[in-house]
Write a structure and sequence with these properties.
heterodimer, A: 483 residues, alpha+beta, Arc Repressor Mutant, subunit A, 3 domains, three-stranded antiparallel beta sheet, 39% helix, B: 490 residues, alpha/beta, Amidase signature (AS) enzymes, 16 helices, 11 strands, 13% strand
Chain lengths: 483, 490
């Protein structure tokens, strides 16, 4: 095969659940903490101890399943996945295998303004492992079991994606949903949202799947996209060179921007799965299902559509505004405080999102302490919309308003910052500027229209930034024409 | 010495009553059993650990509490022995394995908590086959236990230490665990009462797992009423064991004297096997005849899937064991071999040195059973057989209230006799493992002796969670003889 190829991509996501306690014991599931402080005989795998299922984990799994249109199974079964590793204290991981809690859903993701439907194979519950620490002690490796027993959702997609961008969009959409549901904080760097990719290639239009390669060790959305892109090229080149593509697991090396073979199929583990005899099957009856369903929040896709319709926003803007529930809530609070929806959307997308990035507010699953309140941002937007402030002055005020709770209109009044739109007042400033810059005046008159920008800037500066730039330009042009 | 000897042979009930009424002190009783251990255990090899200090301190606390008019539990001051696969926070717990030779749990098993709450005093940890895998207690990594009736014979297993200790008065009662007959077989071989409760009746939390879907903790005592008392203390739902039943625990002692009039006793045809020692069959049939004289009706029943029980058991139990024993890897606790290589080599040498032959054999067998390509042929098929075996019992209990059978085809065999022949050893459990596979309760109660004086046990099997009827039948049978008074020679 030397012609064009189509990539076939499926993703497996491991999402650490934000439950208070671990999946099978009462230890805190919180991230961090000094090593081996959130541990007990159960999550250390001591002799004779037994797991007890945390009901909140099932609630979360049902939530995730409902949000992704899965069928919630009335009966699901935990199974043991057996393998030896120092971070796995029992020598097996309690997971679900043949009978997971959620089957057969889908996610609609927005890629280049088109909706793509990506199938979900399954969602199941399992426990996380501890963490090996290799560089802390010269005499050997250490193990921190704080993470041992933290609940995970494993979310497995169908091989429905065709491009790295689709994979990225799927991951962002999935993370957004989990964050809306307050199940997972979605932090890829800290490992609370992890992704492995299965990638194969085939001739476009083919239905049979090629040999798949599993890629691990990608710790950002960008890494996932780059790794898949690399892998598709690698496989295509291998095929063109007549080399076989082997079924294997490869690791993404972010520094070298390449994937490297970790283990081949022949060395794959035989996990010897069998039903966990220490836990009865998980029975979810209709009452349980309805209780979870009744508490479901509005999800990003529904909200996106509603924003488009209610606020007359462009789809891509509605998408940006609804990716985080807290941001969408913020936007709506601003509208409720009296801002025009399009203005509020612009201010939210530019200023608020920048603030979130700069202040690293997105480390929190739900941002509750906003440095600038929705009402404040709405107030600024209104002051610009009604011509009281020019946009630059308004942006300059943001920093001053942060953390104060002050009403922007009040600040503008006390500081005398209101924009000057009175042509009479501006004429004086313009006259001074024209006298000071005879060279530019000459250039303008010689037909170099662009120089007007420079002169507007000078006039703005001379007015202390308060002049209405539109009025300044009008007055300038009139003076140049007449003078 | 004579006084001590007498005290050490008291029943649980009598001992508890004497302490409660002030006829003797808890300290006296604990001293008596410790003296009995000194006197007899060197020969028996039943005890792996003794908590002299902690037991005497606990006894003093009981005595003080009584003197102050305090509320003490039903087992206040009574010294209890625990099979060494039951975790205790104040005594090492080895499961009879080099792997856990110096292992000291930081927690009590739920059954131990309940014993302590009832006032009982854990005083000795008792020998067993390594990780409860065996039928003779010869698989203990430390030493074999001998049968108190004949030291050249095994006590049965895997709870051989528990049965031998109770028979010899090293403790007033003991707990064992039963995965395929590990309480009933040694109870039968040592002439004591042993109960395997219904699966889910007693918490498994803190009990070192062998085969999780089969393991149950149960009492080993010198008479039926003691077994009812001890079972009542340890039974009941435990939120730490998801497989423990939420059913309320009945008063097992209440109906003990109600007799057997009108009860229907079934004799499973498949349990009177060819090659059975004739004295065993005679003793069991004699016991059944006496129950019939007392008003029970006796009918033959059939449990047609019995021939599959041994194979089913050795697929299910070993599969679970191979996984349960994976945690003994030398990383966090237990034996870690000196090794200069990497972690793989550390695993191999630690496990290679830490586990004995029978444990390795079962881990390998279970690993094979669960392997890709064999799982359906072995594990899945074994689960189907297990369902069929349980269905046999359900059908039988449509027409019977209890089933009566021998516990084992023979009385206690000689040490070493079956060690080189694992399959013959496995056949020791042929009559007991079905109850574990079906999850039903079963017990062993003494019903006779062979020509050499070795005890014979009568096995009674009942409906799920109907231990009360089993105990009632056992009590009626016990009253037809002087079984509890027959003690092994000192």
């Amino acid at each position: 095969m030397t012609g064009p190829v189509e990539a076939v991509i499926g993703l497996e996501v491991h999402a650490e659940m934000l439950t208070a306690s671990k999946i099978f014991c009462a230890c805190s599931a919180a991230f961090g903490g000094p090593p081996n402080t959130n541990v007990c005989p159960v999550c250390l795998g001591m002799p004779g101890v037994l797991p007890v299922l945390n009901g909140q984990v099932v609630d979360f799994a049902i939530r995730a399943g409902l949000a992704t249109h899965c069928t919630i199974q009335p009966r699901s079964v935990f199974a043991r996945k057996n393998y030896f590793y120092p971070d796995l204290p029992k020598g097996y991981q309690i997971s679900q295998y043949e009978l997971p809690i959620c089957l057969g859903g889908h996610l609609d993701v927005l890629v280049a303004d088109a909706v793509r439907r990506i199938g979900l194979t399954r969602i199941h519950m399992e426990e996380d492992t501890g963490k090996n620490i290799h560089d802390a002690d010269v005499t050997g490796s250490l193990v921190d079991f704080n993470r041992s027993g933290v609940p995970l959702l494993e979310i497995v997609s169908e091989p429905d994606m065709r491009t790295p961008e689709e994979a990225g969009a799927y991951l962002r959409t999935l993370r957004s949903i989990l964050q809306y549901l307050e199940i997972c904080d979605g932090n890829m760097e800290e490992g609370s949202f992890r992704c492995d990719a299965n990638v194969s290639i085939r001739p476009p239009g083919a239905t049979a799947l090629g040999t798949k390669v599993e890629i691990k060790n990608m710790n950002s959305f960008r890494a996932v996209e780059r790794a898949i892109a690399y892998e598709v090229v690698r496989q295509r080149e291998a095929q063109q060179a007549g080399e076989p593509i082997v079924q294997e697991t490869r690791l993404w090396d972010a520094d070298r921007e390449e994937t490297r073979s970790m283990r081949s199929k022949e060395h794959a583990h035989d996990y010897r799965y069998f039903p966990e005899p220490d836990l009865p099957p998980v029975a979810v009856d209709l009452a349980w299902l309805e209780r979870v369903r009744a508490a479901m929040p509005e999800l990003p896709a529904e909200r996106r559509t509603r924003f488009e319709q209610t606020y007359d926003l462009r789809p891509e803007d509605a998408d940006v505004l609804t990716q985080r529930k807290d941001v969408a809530d913020y936007f709506e609070a601003g509208v409720a405080a009296g801002a025009a929806p399009k203005e509020m959307a612009n201010w939210t997308m530019t200023e608020l999102l920048r603030l979130i990035r700069d202040e690293k507010l997105d480390r929190a699953l739900v941002i509750r302490a906003w440095p600038i309140t929705p009402a404040q941002l709405a107030g600024l937007a209104n002051l610009v919309a009604d011509g009281t402030l020019n946009r630059n002055t308004a942006k300059g005020l943001l920093a001053e308003l942060m953390g104060t709770g002050l009403d922007p209109a009040e600040l503008v009044r006390t500081r005398g910052l209101a924009q000057v739109s009175d042509a009479g007042a501006i004429e004086g400033v313009v006259a001074v500027v024209l006298r000071a810059h005879p060279e530019q005046v000459q250039q303008f008159k010689a037909g170099k229209d662009k120089v007007i920008g420079y002169l507007v800037g000078q006039a703005m500066k001379a007015s202390g930034g308060k002049a209405n730039p539109k009025v300044v330009q009008d007055v300038l042009r009139r003076a140049l024409r007449d003078g | 010495m004579a006084v001590h000897a007498a005290l050490a042979d008291l029943s649980l009930r009598e001992a508890a009553a004497r302490i409660r009424t002030g006829a003797m002190t808890a300290v006296d009783l604990v001293r008596a059993v410790l003296a009995r251990c000194d006197e007899r255990d060197e020969r028996l090899g039943a005890v792996l650990a003794r908590g002299d200090e902690s037991a005497l301190a606990a006894a003093e606390a009981v005595d003080r509490s009584l003197a102050a008019g305090g509320d003490v539990g039903p087992l206040a001051g009574v010294p209890i022995g625990l099979k060494d696969n039951i975790c205790t926070r104040d005594l090492p717990t080895t499961a009879g394995s080099r792997m856990l030779e110096h292992f000291q749990p930081a927690y009590d098993a739920t059954v131990v908590e309940r014993l302590r709450a009832a006032g009982a005093i854990p005083v000795v940890k008792l020998n067993c086959d390594e990780f409860a895998m065996g039928s003779s207690t010869e698989n203990s990594a430390f030493r074999p236990t001998r049968n108190p009736w004949d030291p050249s014979r095994v006590p049965g297993g895997s709870s051989g230490g528990s049965a031998a200790a109770v028979a010899a008065g090293l403790c007033a009662g003991a707990l064992g665990t039963d995965t395929g007959g590990s309480i009933r077989l040694p109870a039968s071989f040592c002439g004591v009462v042993g109960v395997k409760p219904s699966y889910g009746r007693v918490s498994r939390y803190g009990v070192i797992a062998y085969a999780s879907s089969l393991d149950q903790v149960g009492p080993v005592t010198r008479d039926v009423a003691d077994a009812a008392l001890l079972l009542g203390v340890i039974a009941g739902h435990d939120p730490r064991d998801s497989t423990s039943s939420p059913r309320p625990t009945p008063d097992f002692a209440a109906a003990l004297d109600d007799g057997v009039r009108g009860l229907r006793i079934g004799l499973p045809r498949e349990y009177f096997v060819e090659g059975m020692q004739p004295e065993v069959e005679t003793a069991v049939r004699g016991a059944v005849d006496r129950l019939q004289e007392l008003g029970a009706t006796v009918t033959p029943v059939t449990l047609p899937h019995t021939p599959y029980a041994i194979a089913t058991y050795y697929l299910v139990a070993t599969a679970e064991a191979s996984s349960n024993l994976a945690r003994y890897d030398g990383v966090r606790y237990g034996r870690r071999a000196e090794s200069s290589g990497g972690v793989e080599e550390m695993y191999r040498t630690s496990r290679g040195e830490g586990f004995g032959t029978e444990v390795k054999r079962r881990i390998m067998l279970g690993t094979y059973v669960l392997s890709a390509g064999y799982y359906d042929a072995y594990y899945v098929k074994a689960q189907r057989a297990r369902t069929a075996i349980a269905a046999d019992f359900r059908r039988a209990f449509e027409t019977c209230d209890v089933l009566a059978a021998p516990v084992a085809p023979t009385t206690a065999f000689r040490l070493g006799e079956r060690l080189d022949d694992p399959v013959t050893m496995y056949l020791s459990d042929i009559l007991t493992i079905s109850a574990n596979l079906a999850g039903i309760p079963a017990l062993s109660v003494p019903c006779g002796q062979d020509a050499g004086g070795l005890p014979v046990g009568l096995q009674l099997l009942g409906r799920p969670f109907d231990e009360a009827t089993l105990l009632r039948v056992a009590a009626a049978h016990e009253a037809t003889g002087d079984w509890p008074e027959r003690r092994p020679p000192a």
